[in-house]
Design goal:
The chain is built from 15 helices and 22 strands. It is of the alpha/beta class. It has three domains: 158 residues, FAD/NAD(P)-binding domain, CATH 3.50.50; 113 residues, 3-Layer(bba) Sandwich (FAD/NAD(P)-binding domain), CATH 3.50.50.60; 113 residues, 2-Layer Sandwich (Enolase-like, domain 1). Belongs to the class-I pyridine nucleotide-disulfide oxidoreductase family.
């Protein structure tokens, strides 16, 4: 066994996804000696296997859908799907899954980059192991930042582990659309990728164990997506739990559902959520239960504050359990950097977390759903507006299905949540995100002038329903 080499740094950042990279870079630019540790690709899941390449696929698939809508509205057209341009665009955007540009950017900001897996081996130490088995034990003088992200959560379905199933990573790297696709999971990842492949000609079946698609969101979002995805040709099974999976080279995958369905496809995409591996991180070294779902953090993102000359331990991103979003990790990175530099400022707040599912139609949401607000025993009133009624000047176009739903707390007189579903739903969400974040009084929102004929005008219609 090779000897463990010793090193020191002011700050050790474990995990260089969007938030980890930002924190490491800013701390280095502030004059600290920062060691950044990453086993995979610098930049994390988002630019290589998540947000960016998946949106290229979604956009390409959307162009096909728009082309098919021309008939009867603007002329005639023949649409012939071709996956190759989309695959080339994905490879270009990811630099063919090479992070040299990102590493150079990080080093250019003054960070010492260590390629390898980092695990906590003491309250103030991270041991980094490279692919050759060489290890460096880096002792932190001031802080350790844990930004290890998450990985696809694979359910313990009998037979699944022995099959060549896909996660989002294999789906993103696909050189051609599968002849047929079975998607386990009706959340954002499964629906976005499933709809994209469907529009390129792949027969797609989605299986969701809960009663609704996007089970965290408003039931109206499920109803809308169920209608639209079915019209796209996607077969949707909800409240369907898979009891076992088998795979054969010639016939592909077969999933056997507990209530009797037998579903077959060439490829199987597992999109049943994500998890952070605290065991691999070595969480026990800092007295954290390594079987927990997330690292416990306070409002300053501290797992453990600096004490007795020992460095503080901060965490950010997916591993905190506050939302597996790139924008969350970047937001938390700012709180962590200010904490380490002693700059103060506001603590982390999660009352207005925005989230968008980039299906067609897009589903944007911020803050609490109606159910969550009632669970908190707020005095709830809701407002709902159908886009077909709010944007009459645009209803001659097809593909304009959608709605706006608002959730208000009548005691405080502010919105605590909202959903914008429809064309540009993620962009329309911006107005509601500001309103929920800033706790803008309903009386002020009702005075707002909403441009006509826009989709965001539906916000005004929904406000009038609240009264």
């Amino acid at each position: 066994m090779a000897a463990v080499r010793a090193d020191t740094a002011d700050v050790v950042v474990v995990g260089l996804g969007p938030g980890g990279e930002e924190a490491a870079g800013r701390l280095a630019e502030a004059g600290l000696d920062v060691a950044g540790v990453e086993e995979g690709l610098v930049g994390g899941e988002c630019p290589y296997y998540g947000c960016i390449p998946s949106k290229i696929m979604v956009r390409s698939a959307g162009l096909l859908a728009e082309g098919r809508r021309i008939a009867g509205h603007a002329g005639t057209v023949m649409v012939h799907p071709d996956w190759r341009p989309a695959a080339r665009a994905v490879r270009g955007a990811t630099s063919d899954w090479d992070d040299k540009i990102a590493v150079d950017r990080l080093v250019g900001r003054g960070v010492r980059f260590l390629r390898g897996s980092g695990r906590l081996t003491a309250r103030d130490e991270v041991t980094v192991a490279d692919t050759d088995g060489n290890e460096i034990a880096v002792r932190a003088r001031q802080a350790i930042v844990l930004a290890v992200g998450s990985e696809p959560a694979i359910p313990p379905i009998p037979g699944l582990a022995r099959t060549p199933y896909w996660t989002n990573r294999e789906a993103i790297r696909a050189e051609e659309p599968p002849r047929s696709l079975l998607v386990l999971g009706g959340g954002s990842v499964g629906l976005e990728l499933g709809q994209a492949f469907c529009r390129f000609g792949t027969p797609v079946t989605v299986v969701e164990g809960m009663q609704r698609l996007l089970p965290r969101e408003e039931p109206e979002a499920h109803e809308l997506l169920l209608k639209v995805l079915t019209e796209d040709g996607i077969e949707v099974h909800t409240s369907a739990r898979v009891g076992s999976v088998e795979y054969r080279d010639r016939s592909g995958f077969t999933a056997y559902c507990e209530r009797g369905e037998r579903l077959a496809a060439e490829r199987l995409l597992v999109a049943t959520g994500r998890r952070s591996d605290l065991i691999r991180l070595g969480a026990l070294a800092i007295d954290v239960d390594d079987e927990a779902a997330a690292l416990p953090v306070d409002e300053r993102l501290r797992v453990a504050p600096p004490v007795g000359g020992r460095p503080g331990i901060w965490a950010l991103g997916d591993v905190t359990g506050k939302g597996a979003y790139t924008h969350m990790s970047m937001y938390q990175a700012d709180v962590v950097v200010r904490g380490i530099l002693g700059e103060g400022g506001p603590p982390a707040s999660y009352h207005a977390v925005p989230r968008v599912t980039f299906t067609d139609p897009e589903i944007g949401a911020v803050g609490l759903t109606e159910w969550e607000a009632r669970e908190r025993e707020l005095v709830v009133r809701t407002g709902y507006a159908d886009l077909s009624a709010s944007a009459r000047g645009r209803t001659h176009q097809i593909g304009n299905d959608g709605f706006v739903k608002l959730v208000a707390d009548m005691l405080s007189g502010v919105l605590v949540g909202g959903t914008t579903a429809g064309p540009y739903g993620g962009e329309v969400l911006g107005a509601l995100s500001v309103a929920v974040h800033a706790r803008v009084p309903l009386t002020v929102l009702r005075e707002q002038i909403w441009a006509y004929p826009t989709f965001h005008r539906a916000i005004g219609d929904a406000l009038r329903q609240i009264g």
